[in-house]
Specification:
This protein is of the alpha+beta class. It has six helices and three strands; from the N terminus they run H-H-E-E-E-H-H-H-H. It has one domain: Sufe protein. Chain: A, CATH 3.90.1010. The relative contact order is 0.21. The protein binds FE2/S2 (inorganic) cluster.
């Protein structure tokens, strides 16, 4: 099997697209919330978000040193967060991300969890003491 065929065998087209063309990559000047997590493998993800005056997420960006699965999950989370209130964002679950990506191999689920943890940390920071209604 050729390397590209192996990749397609293990990952969906959507996952590969987000890994190769990550959305909302970068930082946000003066963010309302930032979360950063490092995995036991040494990879890290940082998520930042800004709220508009209705307290909805107007911008969510990430930077990462990580594998394709972590990058794809972070990319998807930035899109899922767009326009949501803090409470709506807090109700996003790690399974929602994996499901949107069309599934991940078992040995790669911790990579999406890395991005999710950074995201939820950013959401909590942006809540700034407001009570969150977690799922
Ligand atoms: Fe380290 Fe995926 S291998 S986050």
């Amino acid at each position: 099997m050729l390397p590209d065929e192996q990749l397609m065998d293990e990952f969906t087209e959507r996952m590969i697209d987000h890994a190769h063309n990550p959305r909302n990559l970068g930082t946000i000047p003066d963010p309302h919330g930032v979360g950063r997590t490092t995995s036991s493998c040494g990879d890290w993800v940082q998520m930042a978000l800004r709220l508009d005056d209705r307290r909805r997420i107007s911008e969510c960006r990430f930077t990462a040193y990580g594998c394709g699965s972590a990058v794809a999950a972070a990319s998807v989370l930035t899109e899922m967060a767009q326009g949501k209130t803090i409470n709506e964002a807090a109700r996003i679950q790690p399974e929602d991300v994996v499901s949107y990506l069309g599934g991940l191999p078992e040995h790669k689920t911790h990579c999406s969890q890395l991005s999710y943890t950074a995201f939820i940390e950013a959401v909590r920071a942006a809540a700034n003491g407001d009570a969150l209604e977690l799922a």
